[in-house]
Amino acid sequence: MKNFGAKSALVAAAMAGSMTATALPAIAQDEGPIKVGILHSLSGTMAISETTLKDVMLMLVEQQNEEGGLLGRELEPVVVDIASDWPLAAEKARELLTVEDVDVVFGCWTSVCRKSVLPVFEELNGLLFYPVQYEGEESQRNVFYTGASPNQQAIPAVDYLMEEEGVERWVLAGTDYVYPQTTNKILEQYLMDNGVASEDIMINYTPFGHSDWQTIVSDIEAFGSAGKKTAVVSTINGDANVPFYRELANQGIEASDIPVVAFSVGEEELSGFDTEPLVGHLAAWNYFMSVDTPENEEFIAAWHEFIGSDDRVTNDPMEAHYIGFNLWAAAVEEAGTTDPDAIIETIVGLEVPNLTGGMAEMLPNHHITKPVLIGEIQDDGQFFVVSETDDLVPGDAWSDYLPESAMLDADWTEPVMCGNYNTETETCGGSSASAE
Amino acid sequence: MFRAPFAFRLLAAALCLLAGVFAPIAVSAQDNTSQIRELIAAMPDASLRELEEIVSSLAATGNTDVVPVLEALGEGDLYFNEETGDVVIVTRNRMYDPVTEEEIAPVGETDLSRIRVNNGLRRDIDATIGGMTLMADDPQTRISAARTMGASPDEENIPLLDEALAAETDPAVRTAMENARAVTILGMPDATLEQKRQAVPIVSRTSGGAAIVTLRSALNEDTPEELRADIESAIAGLEQERAFWQAAQNVWFGLSLGSVLLLAAIGLAITFGVMGVINMAHGEMVMLGAYTTYVVQETIRQNSPELFDYSLAIALPLAFLVTALIGVAIERGIIRWLYGRALETLLATWGLSLILQQTVRSIFGPTNRQVGNPSWMSGSFDFYGLSITYSRMWIVVFAIVVFAALLVVLNRTSLGLQMRAVTQNRRMASAMGIRTPFVDAMTFGLGSGIAGLAGVALSQIDNVSPNLGQGYIIDSFMVVVFGGVGNLWGTLVGALTLGIANKFLEPYAGAVLGKILILVFIILFIQRRPRGLFALKGRAVDA
């Protein structure tokens, strides 16, 4: 109520200002600072990953302000804590869009967070930039997915293992929730399409925060001693990784016997432990801190200065925020306004440099183009890039390897304007499998 | 140092002739140092594929001087100077020449970059070194060389192995060599039937867990009948053995999970079981214990790294003190005002647990902290068919010691006597002159201190993060309730039962369903026996 009063007072003042055309300070809707909402967990389980993303957003906003802001206006960050609580995330998103009146929101880590704030952004026509690799099978008009979709991370990683390491037997190990389940479904189909027999695939799910890996690791060892080269594709999330890798090391499973390729383990996760026994295990990302480009060097230097410590690492979701923020800034400059509808129209097709020395382009399906890098863990907690895709890989919203989504396409430009366009029936609304 | 095998000298001589194409002067096997140096000098600029070629060229020189440089490359100890391009081996902050292994004094500020390798190259290097170190002086080196040969069988190794076996006297090395030879023969298409039949029993005796795989991969359509019968009976025998050891392994895993549960729950068995306080902040005491370990290790790392192996021994008393003091403060500050009001205690301690988590998060940051394993807690050993990891084994031992010590404190000390007196009949105890508030604080401090000890142990197998405690609080309550409130032996039996049941369910039901089944089982069990496995009898029940 108080806010509403304040706003109408502003509007009244603005109207008065424009009518009398005096030198009153500019306070109308399109004046004053541009507000950038930051919607991350700063406490609770996910704080471990998301606090860093909040910091990197603050840094990007600060940098932009040093360069004079956008459209001649200052940027103002608005930070809220969603406390790893997903209903609260929806409330906080609503608060950002209605009470704080932010122009854009950067946030969320988990898929369940994204799913719970989605209806809010749709209803209030906000903009959300989502920076984390995810399971795909989604495209929404108000959301921009700057992390990897499965075809930009999981599929190239499996290709690498098949071609370079000659892997024939696969363990798909994951935490029991939507991202690993969907990714593993896609991978299983992909492996079968490539002639892997179903008895050569073992799928294993564990609860969040699983800490006793003895049985599973010895199962993996047994599965891997069947005479064929075996690899583990890990979608194990967050905290469960440390005990998992420790158990691997303790039971003497080395990367040269059974390599583990992980999609959720980056520099930040590795900074929690001694990586000496893990050397040679792999991770697939679109960015590694060790990539040697001038852009990356500059970014790391700026990050170290901002955070006040040379020990802090950078990781893939941070790069995704960097790209997302620059894409949004470029769209604002191009459109000359922060109006969401104008941004959604302008941003498609824009290109900004990524940190690994290429250009990231916003595609009509609201995903971006990314290079895919496969890195081996080194004993200093960094990754050594052993493989890199030749070209940028465009993000695919709907997986081509799942029968229920192969015919779906997302295109938020005229004339399609649809997040789940069925190319067979040529209608918007997707197949029966899609929930959106 | 090395007795260079004849085959190598021959091979090297042949290669040196080839090398003559790009090295103007052909050098003898003993004197190809300059060629080796040239190859090493090409390493910094080489791509991974070129590195593979360099490694095989180095091996082809037949000169055992290249072993250290290959080892260093495989282990990531090989660096190059970014300005001059000089390649050096770096271990423990000292630089060595890659060929002569002489120490090089660092000249001013040098910018060193590592020469990086990947898994495939590491495997190549291991196989190469294996071939070159089969005749080394150190038996351990010979064993690992033989093992590498067994892991990547190659018929060209057979003459080398024969030569080495003829000279070998050490029984352990002989076993490893015989195994490598038998494995290789089984996989050779042109070995005679007799050779192969002789190899079968050797493989099944010496290959350990890999025997079944090796034998099975030796079977194909063309396998002669007699050999097939041999192999199949060997496999059947091995599988029977394996089923037995698998069950034993499950019991061990269960014991080890049980001991973790016991450690986490035993402090709660005091505060909840003996005092009746529902302490939701118990998990945070465990977490604080783990952070104490972290602080101790950090201090040691910075001041006296040589003490690192003792870090846990130093952390134990400190963790106990820190958490016990916090426990006493909690009891004096909050819980004593809430005795007899279970709901308020629950809510207050829950709130407290959130405060403690966020405090730790603000001080140490939200990310995991690195707590290392001392050397005596890393790795594993084989005990017949079991593979036992040291960290788990020590935790089982530690849990038993803590449990025994606690029993002694409760049953043999005057503080223990007073604790039992106060919990059984507070007013009577007070009338006998026992300072009940003091005993309450001590009891709560003891329970918290033990949680801190558990934290030191858990820091070895779990993440040290602010969320550490949350993962254990539910399990701990489950154990205490299942075992019977107020009974330490119940906690012991409860923890071990749940651990073993969990591990036997996991292979069949999966980790997620296994946990659910255990929970359902406990709910049903509590329906039948509301007071748990070992119910307290007598007047104490009604107090």
TrEMBL record, chain A:
<keyword id="KW-0732">Signal</keyword>
<feature type="signal peptide">
    <location>
        <begin position="1"/>
        <end position="23"/>
    </location>
</feature>
<dbReference type="InterPro" id="IPR017777">
    <property type="entry name" value="ABC_urea-bd_UrtA"/>
</dbReference>
<dbReference type="Pfam" id="PF13433">
    <property type="entry name" value="Peripla_BP_5"/>
</dbReference>
<dbReference type="InterPro" id="IPR028082">
    <property type="entry name" value="Peripla_BP_I"/>
</dbReference>
<protein>
    <submittedName>
        <fullName>Urea ABC transporter substrate-binding protein</fullName>
    </submittedName>
</protein>
TrEMBL record, chain B:
<feature type="transmembrane region" description="Helical">
    <location>
        <begin position="307"/>
        <end position="330"/>
    </location>
</feature>
<dbReference type="GO" id="GO:0006865">
    <property type="term" value="P:amino acid transport"/>
</dbReference>
<keyword id="KW-0812">Transmembrane</keyword>
<dbReference type="Pfam" id="PF02653">
    <property type="entry name" value="BPD_transp_2"/>
</dbReference>
<keyword id="KW-1003">Cell membrane</keyword>
<feature type="transmembrane region" description="Helical">
    <location>
        <begin position="251"/>
        <end position="278"/>
    </location>
</feature>
<dbReference type="GO" id="GO:0022857">
    <property type="term" value="F:transmembrane transporter activity"/>
</dbReference>
<feature type="signal peptide">
    <location>
        <begin position="1"/>
        <end position="29"/>
    </location>
</feature>
<comment type="similarity">
    <text>Belongs to the binding-protein-dependent transport system permease family. LivHM subfamily.</text>
</comment>
<keyword id="KW-0732">Signal</keyword>
<keyword id="KW-0029">Amino-acid transport</keyword>
<keyword id="KW-0472">Membrane</keyword>
<dbReference type="GO" id="GO:0005886">
    <property type="term" value="C:plasma membrane"/>
</dbReference>
<protein>
    <submittedName>
        <fullName>Branched-chain amino acid ABC transporter permease</fullName>
    </submittedName>
</protein>
<dbReference type="InterPro" id="IPR017779">
    <property type="entry name" value="ABC_UrtB_bac"/>
</dbReference>
<dbReference type="InterPro" id="IPR052157">
    <property type="entry name" value="BCAA_transport_permease"/>
</dbReference>
<feature type="transmembrane region" description="Helical">
    <location>
        <begin position="438"/>
        <end position="457"/>
    </location>
</feature>
<feature type="transmembrane region" description="Helical">
    <location>
        <begin position="508"/>
        <end position="526"/>
    </location>
</feature>
<keyword id="KW-0813">Transport</keyword>
<feature type="transmembrane region" description="Helical">
    <location>
        <begin position="393"/>
        <end position="417"/>
    </location>
</feature>
<dbReference type="InterPro" id="IPR001851">
    <property type="entry name" value="ABC_transp_permease"/>
</dbReference>
<keyword id="KW-1133">Transmembrane helix</keyword>
